[in-house]
Amino acid sequence: MTIAAPVVELVTLDAIRAAARAIAGVAVRTPLLPVDDVAERLGVPVFVKPENLQRVGAFKLRGAYNVVSQVAAAGSRGVITYSSGNHGQAVAFAARRFGLRAVIVMPQTVTAAKRGGVERLGGEVVLAGLTSRDRYDKAVELAEREGLDVVPPYDHPGIIAGQGTVGLEIVADCPDVRTVIVPVGGGGLSAGVCTAVKALASAAQIVTVEPEGAGKFARSFAEHRRVTLEKTASIADGLITLSVGALNYEHLVRAVSRAETVSDEALRETVRFVLDRLKLVIEPSGAATLAWLRRQAKGSIAGPVVAVLSGGNIEWEGLEALFGGAP
């Protein structure tokens, strides 16, 4: 007897459009900015979508606000999440807008910029261990004890739909886009973007990028199964999950053309490049897509190209440490 595989309910374009309506007037509609240096070398138009200009400094606001608006409408008493930083700030921001309590479980190694961002937005910070599993376990414990609604960072249809609004905007601003490059942490942004882009610009290629020390989806893509790594390490702290979410993986395998990785040195160089040439501040996680693109050969990428810069939550001291005090 053959047992049928479970049916996976994927996020639809209609759900992403509904999320766009939910976040309208709250999330910043970030522009596409040309990157002439890279475009000239590759021979195709190149743009970045700077989600570091988003409220709370990262794309995470889109998904978090979408989900918090839903639980608020259902009568939530408060919300809780587990986050290395950017998602936590987004949940704290959204909760404050709806008058809800927000508890954010963060790693003991959280940067001052990301912890400070949560606290400035009224979030209650709880520190728990070093891994995403440590944070998840603590969040579930507190949610059950204190009656809080969990807002997951990536493995949730409302999060994917909210992050997918990035893809809607890319196609609206560049209808003939041929290559979209997105970073992969847990997979919320990449799953949402690829869903929107492939629905609206089916010929476009989706390229995912991760740090070399955290290539969970690149390995999953190569092995045709969702892989969980034993450990990860990178200066890109927002991209070092051990695996992509189960629902996120199902979206990605249906749409991604290439799954790539990039070195920490390339990330560091690209943070500096973006500061010097584009006059933008991004964190290493936000540099992954452009770091990979800058190392490609002319003729290897179809254009126009759009690379998503996912966030810019790094403080002055963090930049000094990243560059080792170099002028």
Task: Write a structural description.
This protein is an alpha/beta fold and 327 residues long. The chain has two domains: 13-56 and 157-323, Rossmann fold, CATH 3.40.50; 60-150, Rossmann fold (3-Layer(aba) Sandwich), CATH 3.40.50.1100. The protein has 14 helices and ten strands. It has helices at 13-23, 36-42, 60-73, 86-97, 112-120, 132-146, 157-163, 165-173, 188-200, 216-223, 246-255, 264-278, 288-293, 316-323; strands at residues 33-34, 46-50, 78-82, 101-106, 124-127, 149-150, 179-183, 205-211, 256-262, 305-309. The strands form two sheets. A six-stranded mixed β-sheet has the order 1-2-10-7-8-9. The chain starts with 12 loop residues before the first helix and ends with a helix.
